[in-house]
Design the sequence.
């Protein structure tokens, strides 16, 4: 019997021993007077002092139940927002567009863990030809994040998907933040026309895409980056390559 089960049984015994029936008509209803309640509290305190390890077991059980509730909420959020997550019609789609496994990534170019995950995502895509990769621009870390997201989206709209991916990779791999001062240099280094990109950065379509991604994130209770959706499961925060590969393998086995 677990410690939690022992405590439960003990408390039930104390409850029955100290409580008295309210009436003959309702023998199952028990009532505590002040003295009985004080005695019960004393018994509980004594039990916990004698068995302090029970608090750790109860805490672990609480964490397990909270995690299960959180996982269920995330699963529901993915299901209810599936169209916006996977088929919004504007987010960059890379890897294999016809692949059997979709990874969606909410990114902020200022995010250190996004940068850390970048080469691992690239390796995953290069070694697994069935990954469908969607990028959600989600600038949340200040003006430089907004600048980078607007430059990336403007590049996608005005210069195309391949140009977008070049800039995305370049920003992720640049030491330090992308700023208004070094934006032109980064664009020129990647054969992108600064005037075209800059002219489109404040377009309403760029603003609307960022707003739509933020609204989607709010509905899904996403407040940090990177946040991933692996097919039907949300992963909040950085995940090493080996764990990503293991998760994908498990999910593929589950549907075979």
Sequence:
């Amino acid at each position: 019997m677990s410690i939690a089960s022992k405590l439960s049984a003990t408390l039930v015994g104390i409850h029955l021993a100290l409580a008295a029936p309210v009436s003959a008509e309702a023998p199952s209803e028990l009532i505590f007077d002040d003295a009985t309640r004080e005695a019960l509290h004393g018994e509980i305190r004594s039990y916990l002092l004698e068995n302090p390890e029970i608090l750790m077991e109860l805490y672990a059980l609480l964490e397990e139940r909270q995690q299960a509730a959180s996982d269920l909420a995330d699963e529901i959020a993915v299901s209810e927002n599936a169209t916006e997550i996977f088929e919004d019609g504007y987010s960059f789609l890379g890897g294999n567009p016809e692949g059997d496994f979709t990874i969606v990534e909410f990114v902020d170019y200022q995010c250190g863990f996004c940068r850390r995950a970048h080469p691992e995502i690239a390796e995953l895509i290069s070694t697994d030809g069935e990954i469908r990769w969607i990028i959600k621009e989600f600038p949340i870390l200040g003006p430089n994040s907004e600048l980078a997201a607007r430059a990336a989206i403007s590049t996608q709209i005005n210069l195309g998907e391949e140009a977008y991916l070049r800039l995305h990779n370049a920003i992720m791999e640049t030491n330090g933040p992308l700023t208004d001062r070094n934006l032109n240099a980064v664009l020129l280094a990647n054969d992108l026309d600064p005037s075209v990109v800059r002219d489109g950065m404040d377009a309403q379509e760029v603003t609307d895409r960022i707003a739509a991604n933020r609204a989607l994130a709010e509905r899904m209770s996403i407040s940090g980056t990177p946040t991933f959706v692996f097919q039907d499961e949300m992963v909040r925060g950085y995940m090493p390559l080996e764990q990503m590969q293991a998760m994908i393998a498990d999910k593929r086995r589950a549907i075979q």
In short: Strands lie at 20-21, 30-31, 92-95, 101-107, 131-137, 227-230, 233-236. The chain is about 60% helix and 10% strand. Confidence is low (pLDDT under 50) at residues 16-27. Residues 118 and 169 are 8 Å apart (CA to CA).
